[in-house]
Amino acid sequence: MIALAFDLNVLTRDLSLYLENQVKVGLFGSGVGLSLVLGFSAAYACYYLISVAKKPQLIAGGKKFCQFLREQCPVVSETYYPTFWCWESRVQTLLRPFVTAKPWVSYRNELIRAADGGQISLDWFDNDGSATHPDPTSRPTVLLLPGLTGTSRESYILHMVQQSRELGYRCVVFNNRGVSGERLLTPRTYCAANTEDLETVIEHIQNTCPAAPLMAAGVSMGGMMLANYLGRKGRETCLRGVVVFSAGWDVFECTASLEKPLDRFLFNSYLTSCLQASVDRHRPVLEKLFDIDHVMKAKTVREFDERFTSIMFGYPTNEDYYRDASPIHRLKSVQVPMLCLNAADDVFSPNHAFPVETVKQNPNVALLITDHGGHIGFLEGVWPRQSTYMDRVFRQFAKAVIEQGNRLRDL
């Protein structure tokens, strides 16, 4: 890498001398302007290649799982080249929904009933045109869990559906209660700690497609819910494998990070307003048990949780809810192969709270950490419209679990 930087510097010097003597660009009557541009470009290229583009760190609790990932998912060993003009964490996070394409997906919606009388909205992509798995009874199924206020129409979900379609798999998107347009039948929504609805959904999918292998992928809060579910269930699950993206491992640290001035302005206030809009949309049902006007005055996610979420799920304090919602406390009980992708610069999930030591003690869990990528960003390429690093991790891991999953037994 040092040699590369030296070569670029020599090239820049030679070009500058040539341009100053031969090219007139109108800046002070010489080629100084273009020379400065070339010099800056070369310096930036050196900085990018030395400090930004790096191989991710793979941490695994067992050699067998680690070796499996390196063989079947080569992306875990490849250098991640973030989009050179927007590699900074907040920029990646903010731009992802706008610069990535939204593949067209036609869903089949299904509403199922929960034990408390509520309803859960599932969006199915059946992939009936699958060439590799034409038999619908045995077609592999991927369960997708969006983030905090996300639905099946989020760009990152649509990209995973597209990847699954190309692999010949079926997808089911689990929309949390009340977020995708369906009516709220009972005064209850969702949270990262409560996995009852997820258990209902997994059981329903298993009963609907009993001969089809099933795996799951969760993003942000969806990943937290999946990790908490696996921690509770141990081996008592039909999931063959799980991949988690940008999960918040310690909710106390996540909220503290989002309450820093700049991040509060850029992200916290917006998330709070989205949560409040969902509550206000179902006010007729929720106001029977909650002071909705008080909830609508919350300024941060923490205040929203104190006034609404922790109360809804019966926690004595918000601290009790945050402790129960933090997946870091349940990772040691996970008994299903789980790959977790996080960016070290994610302001939603600060890297000092990553469960590195816990992962090292569980042979079923692997943690993949990139230096850059932000929160659900992972943009790469000059113009990152069609695919991201996160999409490649999903595709390779899903294929490995479905087609080579037998090698992961008895980790």
Protein described:
- By secondary structure, the protein is of the alpha/beta class.
- It has helices at residues 2-22, 32-52, 63-72, 89-99, 155-167, 196-208, 221-233, 251-258, 261-281, 283-286, 292-295, 301-312, 318-325, 356-360, 389-404; strands at residues 57-60, 108-113, 119-125, 141-145, 170-175, 214-219, 239-245, 338-343, 365-370.
- A nine-stranded mixed sheet has the order 1-9-8-7-6-4-5-3-2, with helices on both faces.
- Helix 5 links the parallel strand 4 (141-145) and strand 5.
- It is globular, with a radius of gyration of 24 Å.
- The protein starts with a helix and ends in a 7-residue tail after the last helix.
- Residues 140-381 form the AB hydrolase-1 domain.
- It is a single-pass type II membrane protein.
Number of strands: 9
Largest sheet: 9 strands, mixed
Distance between the termini: 38 Å
Helix content: 40-55%
Based on Cα principal axes, name the global outline: globular
